[in-house]
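Hey, resending since the last one bounced:
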Amino acid sequence: MPIDWTEYDLPRSDSTWGRLAFRLEHLLLSPGTSDMGRLRGYLRMKEWRACSSARERLFTLKVAAKLPARAVRESRQAVARYGDAVAREAGVSRRRQLLQLWWLRVRHGVHPINYYAFRLYGPGQLRRAPSFLQDYEPTKMFRLLHRYTAPEEADLLLDKVRFEQWLVDHGFPTTRTIMSFAGGTVARSSLPEGELPRHDIFAKPNDFLQGFHTHRWTYDGQGWTGMDGRRRDAQALRAELGALSSMRELLIQERLRNHPALAALAPGALSTVRVLTLRGEDGVVRVVLAVCKIPVGSAPTDHMRLGGLAAPVDLATGRLGPAIGKSETAIVQPCERHPDTGAVLEGFELPHWEGVMRLAVRVHEALERIVCVGWDIAILEDGPVVIEGNDNPGHTSSQLPTGIALGETPVIPTMLSRLRASFDAPPPNGRRTAARDADRELVRGAPAVTPRS
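The structure tokens again:
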């Protein structure tokens, strides 16, 4: 479903007093003068203006007034869970952790979980805390940006069917949807009526992210075996796919296979590389960072939320850095070897690396307007293919594995600059309308953009 972009409106008056009031409100609500603080100020303005009555605003002020007391409670709970381990590992006492947590929560809005996830208790790390995006921020922040820069392109990325067709039309390598189920029946198919693909297949919802509700089945010539180890014939699989599609459209694709060189890294599910690209203020698209997502066990995808690992990728060489996984006791846990194959992860060199980065940049260039995209690219024997584009890179897939705060990259300054340009010096209505019309035509594919070779 397309996003209701009116939810991300942050209007202001074009009068002199209206501009001044807008800037003053932004100044008062910004938690600090850094680029990240000012960007958060726009989010706070949006939340404040969402209070439609005096009663709601009074309630919001009461919540803010109670923050110091709430921060004490949250900090104590976090120290009770993680404090002893950090005291042993880093030599930071529980009392010092408590004070640091309280200050970060009250002054910068940093939640205790992020203090431990990003290891902000280490020497010299505390000052970096405000630069990290937190769980609840990326979607709001990036969609506020897209609302004023590229709403149609963001909608395109969120619709897997439309984006796949856009990639095909523009000549980019990607996966292909063979058929889809919706409401319990076949919605569309490239096969004869009633037929199922006679090979391994992968299924994913059209509107879900992070690998949720994905499935795969292995074909043996007679039937399909699912992740539960149970074998189905065509009738049973068709009924199962119909049941899975009762709540959302389910896309059926041929299961892709990793490059043979990745066998030790990903013996099960498809491994992808999250490549974060940014269109700078000069209009040039560049790669900011990359993370290799590594599947583990019988999980259908490589997402960390499903037990996968992640490792930063050196942009110059394509070699992996230290890998991490999620842990209930330590939030993130270093992992030297793949738990299934025993392969050493750090230093592993990805094949076709230059092609991966070149493909990410070319696809972003073809979109023309959107500022920042997190691409998921798989590396097959024939080369890299685009699996999907994410309208925001999140925080888990970019910051946790690399240890790099997005506020320390060009991403946040560029986002802030683009929003300022929209709010401080908006184009006349006619030009704004023309730009949006051009955006719609671009996404529909007219005129088509020919990718560079």
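Residues 287 and 357 are 7 Å apart (CA to CA).

Sorry for the duplicate.
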